[in-house]
Amino acid sequence: MEHIYLDNAATTPMAPEVIQTMTDQMVNDFGNASSTHYFGRQAHTVLDNSRHILAQSIQAKDNEIILTSGATESNNTAILKTAMQRAGEGKRLITTAIEHHSVLKPMAYLETQGFDVVYLPVNEQGVINLADLKAALTPDTILVSIMMGNNEVGSHMPIHEIGQLVHESNAWFHTDATQTYGLLDIDVQADQIDFLSVSAHKINGPKQIGFLYVNDAIHLPSLLLGGEQEKKRRAGTENIPAVAGFAKAVELLTPAVKAEHQAQYTAFKQQVLETLKANQVAFEVNGGLGADRVQHVLNLWIKGVSTYVLQMNLDLAGFAVSGGSACTAGDLEPSHVLIAMYGKESPRVAESVRISFGKDTTAAQLDAFCATLTKIVEKNLAKQHAKD
Questions:
Q1: Which of 88, 140, 244, 367 is most solvent-facing, going by the fewest CB within 10 Å?
Q2: What positions does the domain Aminotransferase class V occupy (predicted)?
């Protein structure tokens, strides 16, 4: 049986060029980048060159890139260290109800430490109302953390406008760009972003490597205590093969390639929707459609069939999809994103699946997926009717 991967929002397979780059580094540059001898200098050169590539990808300066183990560490660092550093100025933090858990859980922890966290609501497209943000910004607000693109429904926040509002206040602006980095153009200067989090494994790079962009006007102490790596901003010996692999993955995503991927994923969405309509499957798109969406994510409400049944049967048929965030895929808890968008009582919460495309997805795979999904829906609805 062929296994078809349609869960690229969770993670992506490493590109062959990335694997080759990492292999070469493991063989040839095994030195510690903090060492001053030849082997250390060789590793440090790789580190510097990679950092430059990463910085250029978001229009940042080289010294504004802090290498981390991924977006979870980056999010925790930006949120927790800002709170600790600026607690004397104010204790209000603003985020949204649909953030990744690596933002929501640090926020929940800070609430136990006496901080006031505002969770902005979203509409049925998964987007905040800028008026709500403006109303929530008070003189004692020290941080606003709003994701750039949502991992479950593909909504894209108005980052430029958010950056303008936050810049006019006393707060710093952090965005989790995990789902948009490598797909959309990002300019931290133009959007007035103070912190930005990224993971390599979402763009066909290695796992356990990412970065946190920190505006060089801000001094943010290290979350990890130890050595003086990353100019004392992140302790721990740098993983040079992973860093080099990350940079290679970024190099592969030229402007032309990113534009091609966006166009291809938009076409894939239309293919799936038109095929399911032709097959008379009762469904709706969670979050809607449009050019301003994160195009590789498609979340569908399959009316009358539970998420559990859909996922299980698709997996048995060889299709990898998700019921929500990969961090909660093993959990039976309903999607907090869909609850925030439609309410806890909406049938969408328990009857939806997420499909997410990648560079290796093909039209033929999606035809096979739609045919299989149609059979699963027909079979399960027939069982329900027989019971009735």
A1: 88
A2: 4-369
Q: 321 with 6: CB under 8 angstroms? A: yes
At 331 the pLDDT is 54
**What's the N-to-C CA distance of the chain in angstroms?**
35
Q: How many CB atoms lie within 10 A of CB 104?
A: 20
Residue 337 vs residues 159, 174, 286, 364: alpha-carbon distances, Å: 19, 19, 10, 30
CA torsion 74-79-85-90 (nearest 10°) is: 160
**The domain at 4-12+255-387 falls in which architecture?**
Alpha-Beta Complex (3.90)
**Mean pLDDT, range 6-31, rounded to an integer:** 96
**Integer CA distances (angstroms), 89 to 92, 118, 167, 176, 193, in order:** 9, 17, 16, 24, 20
Structure-token pair, residue 166: 């936050």
User: How far is it, in rounded angstroms, from Cα 77 to Cα 223?
Assistant: 6
Determine which one of 184, 289, 327, 368 is catalytic: 327
Reported pTM: 0.95
Residue 370 appears among annotated catalytic residues: no
Tokens of 52: 């430059």
Q: Is 16-252 in CATH node 3.40.640.10?
A: yes
What residue type is assigned to position 223 of the chain?
Answer: L
Residue 72 token pair:
């979870």
HEC secondary structure over 244-291: HHHHHHHHHCCHHHHHHHHHHHHHHHHHHHHHHHHCCCCEEECCCCCC
d(CA 31, CA 322): 40
* Domain coordinates in residue numbering, the chain: 4-12+255-387, 16-252
In this prediction, what percent of the chain has a pLDDT beyond 70?
A: 97
